[in-house]
Amino acid sequence: MEKNQVFTVEISDISQEGLGIGKQEGFVWFIKDALVGDVVEAAVMKSKKHYGFARLQRVLSPSPHRRKASCSIARACGGCQLQEMAY
Prior knowledge:
The protein is mainly β and 87 residues long. The chain has one helix spanning 74-77; strands spanning 6-14, 20-24, 27-31, 39-47, 51-61. A five-stranded mixed β-barrel has the order 1-2-3-5-4. A hairpin with a 3-residue loop joins strand 4 (39-47) and strand 5 (51-61). The chain starts with 5 loop residues before the first strand and ends in a 10-residue tail after the last helix. The model has no long low-confidence stretch (mean pLDDT 90).
């Protein structure tokens, strides 16, 4: 996939850094602000041989664990990237 190309993926896991992990045809994507159970539309930022990093564009189908962040600038700030996940 090329930079800025948009794709859809279901998030199946979360990394120790809090990035959502989605797999598409054996390729692993790491997506910030994506939660387990989300189906998201993301844009390619960087792609390696077996994995890549993508930017969350929008949540197509939210996870049952997703909730509204208590801070209005949580996503823009980036300091509390798991604030939208229920405990």
